[in-house]
Amino acid sequence: MNQDPLAQLRDIHLPEAIGWWPPAPGWWILTLLLLVSIVFTIRYLVRRRRQRYFRRQAQDLLTRCWESYQLKNDDRQFVESLFTLVRRAYLSSNPSSNLSSGLNNPGNNAKNDTSKVAPDNLAQEHEDHQLKAISSGQVFNMLDQSVGGDLSKLLCLADIEGLLYQQNPEPLKNDQTEQLYTAARRYLKRGVQRC
């Protein structure tokens, strides 16, 4: 008798299932790239949030400065406050700017003797010196660039310096102060650029 050769075959035996651990090298690379991208995204979002918070604070201070000017109508105080705000905004957004601090100047003995000065006073002196290191001309140019040169059409640097440094200065016109306010607002809104 002839037996059927197919009857002698055994059932198919499947191999054991492949375990999920350890993953293939491609998954390790993908995981590493994912973690790196998450870290950089978090750092970017934190930095962006801080910049926006800084801009919001600066814009709030500018609004208070403008409201104070509307009440008191003191041109000198308005320009001083506005220029100080722009200087602080520049220094806050560019902490690595290479302005000479005067604290490391060996010829300046009064500022080098840090043993007699409290750390808070030393930091305040350093900040004051950095603020003074940015000239009125540089601040005026930054503001003028923020409005595309429109500020220099209405107002010149000599008017600003006369207002800041003369005994009896010529008062500014309403459109000049409004243009200064607009330039500072745009400067802070766009983000602080280098002078």
Characteristics:
mainly alpha, rod-shaped, 195 residues, 8 helices, single chain
Main sheet characteristics: none
Low-confidence stretches: 100-115
Instruction: Determine the fraction of residues in helical runs and give it as a percent range.
Output: 55-70%
* Amino-to-carboxy terminus distance: 105 Å
Description of the structure:
The protein has about 200 residues and is mostly helical. It has 8 helices and no strands. The model is unreliable at about 100-115 (pLDDT under 50). It has a domain at about 25-100 and about 135-190. It has helices at about 25-70, 75-95, 110, 120-135, 135-145, 150-155, 155-165, 175-190. α1 (about 25-70) packs antiparallel against α2, α1 runs antiparallel to α8 (about 175-190) and α2 runs parallel beside α8 (about 175-190). Helices cover about 65% and strands about 0% of the residues.
List the helices and strands and how they pair.
Blueprint: H1 25-72, H2 75-93, H3 109-112, H4 119-133, H5 136-146, H6 150-154, H7 157-165, H8 174-190
